[in-house]
Amino acid sequence: MKKLVLTLVVLTGLAGVVMAATYSSGYSKNLQACNPYIEKYKVQIPTEDPNTPVLNLHSTETIVGWREGKCITTSMVHSDDLQQDIIETKCAFSKNQLDSIVKKIDLANKGDKKASQTLQDELTGYAKDGTTCQVNNLIKE
Question: Model-level pTM greater than 0.70?
């Protein structure tokens, strides 16, 4: 049942939600310059399934650096419930996209709820469009 819930959540945009979790100021500063950097955090995602009310996840966000004029980032999301990696996201951001993301991260870190929502929407959009970010569902059947 947990695999089904996770699969449905993954397919409906978990990548963008997880990517938009709170980032540290260190992550933001390194992202602005696209300096290699790794940040790990835990997140709980509520579900509407009474058998699995919360998904316990670990995320590793990596800034790889500049490649061919794009800032390359990767994200690996691990499910504690399934004891496996469930989502891998690879993004290639332009300088303008990077500036927009960093601005929203900084505002969200200052408590700006609107910036937090627009950050989530922007990252979810990149995850869905397939040109900026590629999202791989790693859930084993």
Answer: yes
